[in-house]
Amino acid sequence: MHITQLNRECLLHLFSFLDKNSRKNLAKTCHTLLEVFRDPLLWSLLNFHSPVELKKDNFLLGPALKYLSICWYSERVKVCNIEDWMKNSFQKDFCNRHENTVSDFLLDVCNRCPNLLSLTLSGCGHVTDDCMLQVLKNCPNLKSLKLENCVRITDHTLEAVTLHGGSLRTLHVDFCRNVTQAGLERVRQKCPSVMLRAERSANMIPDSKPGKKLMLEKASRKLVQL
């Protein structure tokens, strides 16, 4: 029995065990399997391990997407998470190559995937508050938002949660150094049903401009002299 003789339900089940590249390669073999690859029901879950994967043509975005994860675990993440004013020219050039990759992808998700239930971002140092605002506005069914080591996320995202996160039940902002204790308390007060976790976020040193950093250093020296 040839694989193409199986019914659509069986083919979708078989495809579900394959990774994105394997699905794409199999879809190239015949028109029937290509149609299965393009079936939105196959793409309810997407996991990415690098921003580069977001640019590949081996997946489909659609209203069936419920669970999305973009987790970048790499030494390069450390470069993106360095404060902008501290980066050298090489580091800035590296970051500029993919600065908008994740944000642009998430805006595409906002337009195509209104039924998203869970979003996990880890190490995505270029994701901004504006991007998170659009996600919360356009994905009203979002129940879980987990942001880890997303250094550009600030209290503005927390405020967006209180305004547009009516369905949210889980919020993680671990190692987001520009989130403050005041912002976290605001979420706890306005959204008591949200399970909030912010490991080391409000206790970390936030980004500061060179001028502000210099003022802090001078104040510190004065205290030592006293």
UniProtKB/TrEMBL annotation:
<feature type="domain" description="F-box">
    <location>
        <begin position="3"/>
        <end position="44"/>
    </location>
</feature>
<protein>
    <submittedName>
        <fullName>FXL22 protein</fullName>
    </submittedName>
</protein>
<dbReference type="InterPro" id="IPR050648">
    <property type="entry name" value="F-box_LRR-repeat"/>
</dbReference>
<dbReference type="GO" id="GO:0005737">
    <property type="term" value="C:cytoplasm"/>
</dbReference>
<dbReference type="InterPro" id="IPR032675">
    <property type="entry name" value="LRR_dom_sf"/>
</dbReference>
<dbReference type="InterPro" id="IPR006553">
    <property type="entry name" value="Leu-rich_rpt_Cys-con_subtyp"/>
</dbReference>
<dbReference type="InterPro" id="IPR001810">
    <property type="entry name" value="F-box_dom"/>
</dbReference>
<dbReference type="InterPro" id="IPR036047">
    <property type="entry name" value="F-box-like_dom_sf"/>
</dbReference>
<dbReference type="Pfam" id="PF00646">
    <property type="entry name" value="F-box"/>
</dbReference>
<keyword id="KW-0833">Ubl conjugation pathway</keyword>
